[in-house]
Design a protein that fits this description.
CATH architecture of one domain: Beta Barrel
CATH class of one domain: Mainly Beta
Strand content: 5-15%
CATH superfamily of one domain: Nucleic acid-binding proteins
Structural class: alpha+beta
Shape: elongated
Distance between the termini: 48 Å
Number of strands: 13
C-alpha cells in the first residue's frame, strides 16, 4: 500500500497533496530530510502547505513506516514457517500494526472455504477487532492499585490509587504518571473492559467468522481474536498517543519561547544570582549581545548597592534577571531595589545555562562562570531564537514529565521546531497568531515587594515563563511565580494552554489567592466583573486559596485542589 493510499485509508486531510507529491514526500523523508528542509529547499513542491500540516504528515509517515515494517516481518515469518503469504487484498484492509496482527489471527480460521468465504471471514475478523478497540477506548477504564502499601515513595501516587479512570477522559500526563509508577514497581494497573459490548459485536459478525465452516464457541472466538492481545495493544496505543501529545505540547511551548519578541534596547544590563554565597555575575551587553563590561562581586552586605552602582555607571535602563534562583530571597531583594530606581526588568529562564556559557569561559573571552551566565541571560532577552538555538533543546525543559518520554524522539521534534522557527525568520514571516508583543522589558508591579502585598482581586502585570497541561506560570516580579490554572486562562473553554498564551508573552491577570507562608500565588486571566467572580464560586472559609475539604469533581474548587497536589510535587 502506498503512502498516499494509506493516508486515504486513515482519513488524513490530503488537500493540496497529490499522489505524486506524497511519493516525493516519502522519498525525501526516507533520505533523512526534515520538514524544515522541505520548506527551505523544496518550497516549490511543498511551500504551499503550512509547517504544522507538514509535521502532521511527517508523523503519519512514521506511522506508515511502522505498518510497513510490521507487514514485512509478518510475511517473512509466514514464509519461513512454510505458510502462504497474506493476500495483498487482505493486507490492504489494514492500516496499523495492531490490525495486521488481527488479520493473522483471523486467517487461522480460513482452513476451509473458497476465496469468497475467506474474504468474508477476514472482513468480519477485522471489523470485530476495530469495534472492540473502539469500545475499549470509549467505555473501558483503568484502575490503579498499590503493589506495596509500605513503600515510602507510594505517596507520590496518592491521587491515582484505588480510582477507576475512563480511558476516554484520561489525560496524557496522568497516563504517563501511571505507567511510570508501574515501571517503578509501585503500582498495578488493571484494565476494565466492556466485555458485554464485545460479545454484542461478536454476535454482529458471527456469520462472517463461521462462513468457512469453522465451528467454535463464541467465548473461544472472542478470546482468540480479541482478548488475548487487546490489553497489550491498548497499552501500546495509550503510550504512543500520550507521548505524541506531550511532545507536541513541548514543541508548541518551545516555539512560543523562540518566537518571543526580542528586547528592544541599545544596551542591557544583566545580573546573575546563583547558589547562596556564590559570586554575583554582572554584564553589560550591546544590542548585538556583545559584552561591553563585566564584573563578578562577592555577596557581602553591600552587594546590592554595588550592583546598582554598576548599572548606573553604564546608564542602562533595561535589566535582565533570572526567573528563579537558589537564593530566592536575595533575588527578590535585588528586584525590589532595582524597581525603586525605575529600571525595566525582564526575567529570563536559566535552563541549560552551563551548556550555554561554556564557550564564553573558553578562549578567546575566558569569562568567569558568573559573568558568562549574566551575558547568556542578556543574549536570551535580546535575541531569544538565536540564544536558545545554541543549546540542546531537551535541556531547556519545556516538556512536562520529560523523564517519561523517549529522549531521542523528543530531541528530534524539538530540533525540528528550532529549524522551522529559524526558517520563519529568514523568510520574515510574522510570529504565530497566539504570540503577542510584550517582552520589551516592562517594569512589573513595582509596588508589589512580596507575596504578602498581594490581595484577591488585585490586577498585576506578568510574563509567561512556562506552560503546563494544567495552566501557565507567570512571573509578576517576585521570586515566586504565579499560576494561572487552565480554567482561569480565558472566559471561554480552553483545552490547550498553548492556544491562549505563549512563553515570553506579557499578560494582565488578577489575583485569586495568595499564601505568603507557602509562597503560592493563584492568578486568573478571566474578566473580573463582579458577576463573573460570584458565579459558581463557593465560599472558602479556610482563609486560603485552596479548599481544605475534597470538592466535587469538575468544580472550580476541584481544580484548586488539583493545584494543591501539584504544588506538593
Amino acid at each position: 500500500m502506498t503512502f498516499h493510499k494509506w493516508l486515504t485509508a486513515n482519513k488524513h486531510d490530503l488537500e493540496g497533496m497529490t499522489e505524486q507529491q506524497a511519493q516525493r514526500f516519502c522519498a525525501l523523508l526516507g533520505r533523512g530530510h526534515s520538514v524544515a528542509d522541505l520548506l527551505a529547499h523544496y518550497g516549490e513542491e511543498f511551500g504551499h502547505l503550512p509547517s504544522e500540516r507538514l509535521r502532521t504528515l511527517s508523523r503519519a509517515y512514521r506511522a506508515w513506516q511502522t505498518w510497513v515494517r510490521r507487514r514485512d516481518k509478518l510475511q517473512q515469518a509466514r514464509q519461513q514457517a512454510g505458510l502462504p503469504l497474506l493476500a495483498d487484498r487482505w493486507v490492504e484492509l489494514t492500516c496499523s500494526a495492531d490490525q495486521l496482527d488481527a488479520l493473522v489471527r483471523t486467517v487461522r480460521l480460513c482452513t476451509e472455504g473458497d476465496d469468497v468465504q475467506c474474504q468474508q471471514t477476514v472482513e468480519a475478523g477485522l471489523q470485530l477487532w476495530r469495534a472492540c478497540v473502539a469500545l475499549a477506548r470509549k467505555e473501558g477504564s483503568v484502575r490503579c492499585r498499590a503493589k506495596d502499601l509500605r513503600h515510602p515513595d507510594l505517596a507520590r501516587y496518592d491521587g491515582h490509587l484505588n480510582r477507576s479512570e475512563s480511558l476516554a477522559k484520561l489525560a496524557p500526563h496522568r497516563w504517563l504518571a501511571l505507567r511510570r509508577g508501574e515501571r517503578e514497581g509501585l503500582l498495578q494497573l488493571e484494565l476494565e473492559l466492556p466485555q458485554e459490548s464485545f460479545a454484542q459485536q461478536l454476535g454482529l459478525v458471527s456469520d462472517g467468522l463461521t462462513s468457512c465452516g469453522v465451528e467454535r464457541s463464541a467465548a473461544s472466538l472472542l478470546e482468540e481474536l480479541v482478548l488475548n492481545d487487546l490489553r497489550a495493544w491498548l497499552l501500546s496505543m495509550l503510550d504512543t498517543e500520550a507521548e505524541a501529545k506531550a511532545v507536541t505540547a513541548a514543541c508548541e511551548s518551545l516555539a512560543g519561547l523562540l518566537r518571543s519578541p526580542p528586547l528592544q534596547a541599545r544596551r542591557v544590563g544583566s545580573i546573575f544570582i546563583g547558589r547562596p554565597r556564590s559570586s554575583v555575575g554582572m554584564a553589560i551587553a550591546d544590542r548585538e549581545g556583545d559584552l561591553i563590561a563585566g564584573r563578578a562581586i562577592k555577596r557581602d552586605v553591600n552587594w546590592i548597592a554595588k550592583v546598582v552602582e554598576f548599572l548606573d555607571e553604564h546608564k542602562v535602563q533595561h535589566v535582565t534577571l533570572p526567573t528563579s534562583a537558589a537564593a530566592a530571597q536575595e533575588l527578590t531583594d535585588l528586584d525590589a531595589e532595582l524597581n525603586k530606581g525605575g529600571l525595566h526588568i525582564q526575567r529570563v529562564r536559566t535552563a541549560a545555562l552551563a551548556e550555554a556559557r561554556l564557550p564564553l569561559t573558553e578562549p578567546p573571552q575566558r569569562l568567569g562562570p558568573a559573568v558568562a551566565s549574566a551575558l547568556v541571560l542578556a543574549r536570551r532577552a535580546l535575541d531569544p531564537l538565536l540564544a536558545w538555538s545554541d543549546v540542546d533543546p531537551v535541556a531547556i525543559g519545556v516538556a512536562e514529565y520529560q523523564h517519561d518520554l523517549n529522549e531521542e524522539r523528543l530531541r528530534d521534534a524539538l530540533k525540528e521546531t528550532v529549524e522551522i522557527c529559524r526558517l520563519e525568520r529568514r523568510r520574515s514571516r510574522p510570529a504565530a497568531s497566539g504570540v503577542r508583543p510584550g517582552a520589551t522589558g516592562v517594569r512589573l508591579n513595582p509596588l508589589v515587594q512580596s507575596v504578602a502585598d498581594l490581595r484577591p482581586g488585585m490586577t498585576v502585570q506578568g510574563i509567561v515563563t512556562n506552560i503546563s497541561h494544567f495552566g501557565a506560570f507567570v512571573n509578576i516580579g517576585l521570586a515566586q511565580e504565579g499560576l494561572v490554572h487552565i480554567s482561569e486562562l480565558s472566559d471561554s473553554f480552553v483545552s490547550n494552554p498553548n492556544e491562549v498564551v505563549s512563553i515570553g508573552q506579557q499578560v494582565t491577570a488578577n489575583v485569586l489567592a495568595a499564601e505568603p507562608s507557602r509562597g503560592r500565588i493563584s492568578l486568573s486571566m478571566k474578566r473580573q466583573g463582579p458577576s463573573a467572580r460570584r458565579q459558581g464560586r463557593p465560599a472558602n472559609k479556610s482563609g486560603g486559596g485552596f479548599s481544605a475539604q475534597r470538592p466535587a469533581p469538575g468544580t472550580r474548587a476541584a481544580a484548586l485542589a488539583d493545584l494543591e497536589r501539584l504544588f506538593k510535587k
